[in-house]
Write a structure and sequence with these properties.
- The protein is an alpha/beta fold and 547 residues long.
- It folds into two domains: 1-71 and 86-101 and 137-151 and 230-320 and 479-547, FAD/NAD(P)-binding domain (3-Layer(bba) Sandwich), CATH 3.50.50; 154-217 and 325-408 and 438-473, Cholesterol Oxidase, domain 2 (2-Layer Sandwich), CATH 3.30.410.
- Helix content is 22%, strand content 16%.
- Strands 1, 2, 6, 7, 8, 9 and 17 form a seven-stranded mixed β-sheet that branches. A six-stranded antiparallel β-sheet has the order 5-11-12-13-10-16.
- Helix 1 (20-31) runs parallel beside helix 6 (235-241) and helix 1 (20-31) packs parallel to helix 11 (524-543).
- The longest helix is centred in the last third of the chain and has 20 residues, at 441-460.
- It is globular.
- GO terms for molecular function: flavin adenine dinucleotide binding; oxidoreductase activity, acting on CH-OH group of donors.
- This is FAD-binding protein.
- Keywords: FAD, Flavoprotein, Oxidoreductase.
- Belongs to the GMC oxidoreductase family.
Length: 547
């Protein structure tokens, strides 16, 4: 029988969120002997209950935050009135496994430069670039732990720009698909250095789960064969196997309880019938993602914490970052059949580092990838008819196209933030999320730089038609970063380098909100490494009675 706890039981830890960080946190705490309740707002689905239905999952919020029940508002700056859009600005999954269920599973490590760019670049006008309070060397063992205990396929050492790996990947890289071959062709012709993409997808049978069957439905979908290494298939079952962990699905945490001594006492939540409960705990770890974590802290305001819990710095919800990118679509003479296989198999990092000679801050990488038929049909090249014979001819050419996607930096700005909308509420009566965001000018310049490089590579690969991307102001994203940044200075950050909040001794945060900088396009591997590292230190604190 699965482990269950009563709400009146005082468990050792509540983990809010079951995604990439929450699943790891639950496993590590439970394996150390602690009693753990994982709170997940979404349902628990088995592999056969996920559907390869592009309309349902990519267009109609099958497992993501639905604007009908969880609305958001958006504005460019604080002088504008925030408005509700047809689709939510910030997208993430609400299901056991969180966004690790529907991500592409593209798994980069950061490079050493990511951790100390402020020291290299200095101040950037209109931004708040900071160094991390940890180094690549401190995180490197935990990158290895992710790769071997969660499962990553790849080829260590294939990129001449990568920082050191103390261990190889446990699985060989996935087979290179047509788009990867063409990226390699174009890149080599220009003297660049493409390499097989590391992916959190099994290329062989690994830890009891099968290899990828090349169905092509990765991004936006859960893996029906469990080859994609989502927490629901990997660390969560291992947490439950200890007998110390309960995963409480369809449980919406909306407030953290705090006593007069300033300690977290548990969480208030709604069950699937929207009945309110309170679960007692000795400590709380919030891993709800870079948007829901600050929202929860802000909604946990009390007379003693009028600006929100753990917010004496005023940084909760601020410094929101996405990953600004730019690229190009390209059509080739022969069919590529990009709908088959993992979405990404080849990439390059030649422009990973920022370079002052470009005249702006920004760096990142490129991946060769594809979109599904419905997504493709909604993204026609400029000048293509959107009705009639011309549109039909374009749709028939679908298998001849590929994308070269650039993934880059977003600069942290204090004015880019998440807070509570003063008027709009969600279906449970909780204040909705309000998003305020304007791209830094350097982010826009870097996006155009990536578009130009993508066009050059696709031209060198022999494309017969190229559709360059456009530089647009961001209206949202799926990589939700920086809103509870880590740092040594309690006046400018929310958590310390061990993920403990500066203000509340027994409250910890670990997810995309923790990142002081945006990374360069694929943050999940780093989020999982941070979760392993944070859990290690939390277990040490608990052993010394320091929580």
């Amino acid at each position: 029988m699965p482990t269950t706890y009563r709400t009146s039981d005082t468990v050792d830890f509540i983990v809010v969120g079951s995604g990439s960080a929450g699943g790891i946190m639950a496993r590590e705490l439970a394996q150390a002997g602690h009693s753990v309740v994982v709170m997940e707002q979404g349902p628990r689905l088995d592999a056969h209950e996920f559907e390869h239905d592009e309309l349902k999952y990519r267009q109609l919020s099958g497992i993501t935050n639905n604007p009908a029940t969880s609305p958001q508002t958006f504005r460019r700056n604080e002088n504008e009135v925030a408005v509700q859009r047809a689709s939510n600005s910030l997208t993430y999954a609400r299901v056991v496994g969180g966004s690790s269920t529907h991500f592409n599973a593209n798994f980069w490590r950061l490079h050493e430069i990511d951790f100390h760019e402020r020291s290299v670049w200095g101040a950037i006008e209109g931004a708040d670039l900071v160094d991390w309070p940890i180094t690549y060397a401190e995180l490197e063992p935990y990158y290895c732990k992710v790769e071997w205990e969660v499962g990553v396929s790849g080829l260590a050492g294939a990129s001449p720009f990568a920082s050191f790996h103390s261990r190889p990947y446990p699985m060989p890289h996935l087979p290179i698909k047509s788009s990867g071959v063409l990226l390699e062709k174009g890149a080599r012709a220009l003297g660049l250095h493409p390499f097989p993409s590391p992916m959190a997808i099994n290329s062989t049978v690994y830890r009891g789960r099968p290899a990828c069957v090349q169905c092509g439905l990765c991004g936006g979908f859960a893996c029906e064969v469990k080859a994609k290494n989502s927490s629901v298939w990997t660390v969560i079952p291992e947490a439950e196997a200890t007998g110390n962990c309960e995963v409480r699905s369809e449980s919406y945490v909306f407030r953290i309880g705090v006593n007069d001594a300033g300690r977290a006492t548990g969480v208030h939540y709604f069950d699937k019938d929207r009945v309110e409960h309170f679960q007692n705990a000795r400590a709380v770890v919030v891993c709800a993602n870079g948007s829901e974590t600050p929202r929860l802290l802000l909604n946990s305001a009390t007379p003693a914490h009028p600006d929100g819990l753990a917010n004496s710095s005023g940084a909760v919800g601020r410094y929101l970052m996405f990953n600004k990118g730019g690229g190009a679509a390209a059509r080739f003479e022969h069919p590529l059949n990009e709908y088959k296989g993992a979405n990404v198999t080849m990439m390059l990092h030649d422009w990973y580092n920022a370079d002052p000679a470009r005249g702006f801050y920004g760096g990142g990488g490129f991946t060769a990838r594809s979109g599904g038929p419905l997504t493709w049909g909604q993204s026609v090249p400029e000048g293509t008819p959107t009705w009639g014979q011309g549109f039909k001819e374009y749709l028939e050419s679908y298998t001849y196209w590929m994308n070269l996607a650039g993934h880059g930096t977003s600069l942290a700005r204090e004015t880019n933030r998440i807070d509570l909308d003063p008027e709009l509420k969600d279906a449970w009566g909780i204040p909705a999320m309000r998003v305020t965001y304007t791209d830094h000018p350097d982010d826009l310049k870097h996006a155009q730089f990536m578009i130009d490089r993508a066009v050059e590579i696709m031209d060198a690969a022999g494309a017969v038609q190229i559709d360059p991307g456009h530089v647009d102001l961001a209206t949202g994203g799926v990589h939700l970063l920086g809103t509870c940044r880590m740092g040594d200075d309690p006046t400018r950050s929310v958590i310390d380098k061990y993920h403990r909040t500066h203000d509340v001794r027994n409250l910890f945060l670990c997810d995309g909100s923790s990142l002081p900088t945006s990374t360069r396009g694929q943050p999940t591997h780093t989020i999982e490494a941070l979760a392993f590292r944070a859990a290690h230190h939390i277990n040490e604190f608990a052993a010394r009675n320091e929580i």
